[in-house]
Design goal:
Number of helices: 3
Distance between the termini: 35 Å
Strand order of the largest sheet: 1-2-3
Number of strands: 3
Radius of gyration: 13 Å
Number of domains: 1
Largest sheet: 3 strands, antiparallel
């Protein structure tokens, strides 16, 4: 049994997984740029989506796509341009 209350989600399981990975990638990118520690995993975001979250850390999403970061719009645009050029963000370890 799940540790959280679930309800009918408007996303398919595949969309939830894709959004979880995208949110993890972008928020990890943002955290590194902000110089803050990052301890989340895609599952954190997936669970939130299933619970009905519509944004995380001011990052909005819909239809398997991240839409905007209202706190850091320029950083979001930089990340999105990098993704469009086919470059994935790889955190420095």
């Amino acid at each position: 049994m799940a540790a959280f209350k679930t309800f009918k989600c408007k996303y398919t399981q595949r969309e939830v997984c894709v959004l979880g990975m995208l949110l993890d990638e972008y928020i990890r990118f943002r955290a590194q740029r902000e110089g803050v520690e990052y301890k989340f995993k895609p599952e954190f975001f997936e669970e939130g989506i299933l619970k009905g979250c519509k944004s995380f850390f001011h990052v909005t999403f819909s239809n398997s796509k991240l839409l905007a970061d209202t706190d850091f719009p320029a950083l979001f645009d930089e990340w999105r341009a990098m993704k469009e050029r086919g470059k994935d963000y790889t955190p420095l370890l």
